[in-house]
Amino acid sequence: MQVIYNGISHLGEALEGVTKVFVVCDSSYPFLNIKHDIENMGTPHVLFSDFTPNPLYDQVCKGVDLFQITKCDSILAVGGGSAIDVAKCIKLAVLTKDGNAALIPPLVSTRVECDGSKIPFIAIPTTAGTGSESTHNAVMYYEGAKQTVTNEGVLPDYAILEPSVLKTLPLYQKKCTMMDALCQGIESWWSVNSTEESYEYSRKTIELIMENWRKYIFENDDEAAVQIMLAANYGGKAINITQTTAAHAMSYKLTSLYKLPHGHAVAVCLPEIWEYMLNNLDKCIDKRGSDYLLDIFMDIAHAMGCENPHQAIVCLRHMMVDMELWNPVSDRKEDDLLMLSASVNLVRLKNNPIELKDKTIRYLYDTII
Predict the structure, then answer these.
(1) Hey, which of 2, 96, 229, 359 has its CA 20 to 30 A from 166?
(2) How confident is the model at residue 145 (pLDDT cuts 50, 70, 90)?
(3) For the residues 86-96, what does the mean pLDDT come to?
(4) What is d(CA 21, CA 158) in angstroms, rounded to the nearest whole number?
(5) Is the pLDDT reported for residue 146 higher than 90?
(6) For the whole prediction, is pTM greater than 0.90?
(7) Partners of 149 in the beta sheet?
(8) Residue 347: pLDDT band by 50, 70, 90 thresholds?
């Protein structure tokens, strides 16, 4: 069972019993207000930050080598989703008998044996978006292809939520990461894998964001930051149960093709996909049926403070306009549509409650770009 701590002051409790910490941190680390707390945590540590925002397999392997050479016995990830994902990959590679091979095809698509209790793992997110601190999934790239690494053994044992780190985030990054959290809450709720537990995490994610997003984005309000960070954590917990759906599946190539940050890319997809699903309930593939799905759409809308799903879709679009998060524009649209349509992760489409065929995916991309 994961332990959630509120505040960096609990770092010592999370580190109890460890002797040497492997700190995985991203490029924001030197500028963090909690850097002093980490450097003075009273436990010997080794820093590893030699990776890019979309981490590569070779970079993860460097981290694995350094962890083993320095004989660390625990991991502390400090940063956004990429830093936490790198830490997860390192932990899995160190613990599994398959080593680094567990991170790449063909083993990456299986659940290799991993006893996570052997290496205590603490995550301190410095953005409020992915909720990666509370998931057993990680993303990295091998030979240009995105790999999703999934294993129960890499779920952090402790997550420390310290909202003050959000205070100095660039405004655009705050917008993108917050929208990623909101989209995760929405997608998890309508996923074919949703459960009573995931519903509640989704509801909390959406309600907290809708109640606080303006103060968080436009006023840099401290209390709003607390609530948005909590919302992102709930979103991670929801997705940890259900996995993501079509909006995420369609977002990844938008990120690489148009250099859109992940949260921005997901957020331009979701309203178009939701509108299509609402107008095509007869294509429902959720075993619970189309009437059930329409009720879920209504529940999501109500959590957003809207009367119905149509109003909720309009609300999402207005949010994007207010934050100046525009859709990408292509000057070679036909070529891009072919590339985008061929890129979609079919596994994530299986989690979507409405069937999306090739022609539909192309149509949706046409509306997005």
Answers:
(1) 2
(2) confident
(3) 98
(4) 14
(5) no
(6) yes
(7) 138
(8) confident
**Cα–Cα dist 181/108, whole Å:** 25
- Domains for the chain: give ranges and CATH numbers: 3-165 (3.40.50.1970), 170-368 (1.20.1090.10)
DSSP string, 206-259: HHHHHHHHHHHHHS--HHHHHHHHHHHHHHHHHHHHH---HHHHHHHHHHHHH-
pLDDT attached to residue 359: 96
Instruction: Determine the 3-state secondary structure of 277 from DSSP.
Output: helix
The rounded mean pLDDT for the chain is 96
At residue 165, the pLDDT reads 96
Nearest residue to 82 via CA among 21, 30, 29: 29
Quote the CA–CA distance of 220 and 12 in Å, as a whole number: 29
| Average pLDDT score over residue span 59-66 | 98
Percent of the chain with pLDDT over 90: 95
DSSP state string for 142-204: ETTEEEEEE-GGGS-SEEEE-GGGGTTS-HHHHHHHHHHHHHHHHHHHHSTT--HHHHHHHHH
Please name which of 336, 170, 331 lies closest in space to residue 261, comparing C-alpha atoms: 170
* 367's tokens: 């509306």
DSSP category for residue 32? -
Beta bridge partners of 79: 125
Q: What is the C-alpha separation between 41 and 336, in angstroms, rounded? A: 49
Place of tokens 């998890």: 188
The answer to whether 50 touches 25, Cβ cutoff 8 Å, is no
User: Residue 334 burial (CB < 10 Å; 0-12/13-18/19+)?
Assistant: exposed
User: Please, which residues bridge with residue 158 across strands?
Assistant: 3, 122
* Residue given tokens 């979309």 in the structure block: 54
DSSP strand pairing (45-48 vs 21-25): parallel
Comparing C-alpha atoms, which of 218, 315, 316 is closest to residue 266? 316
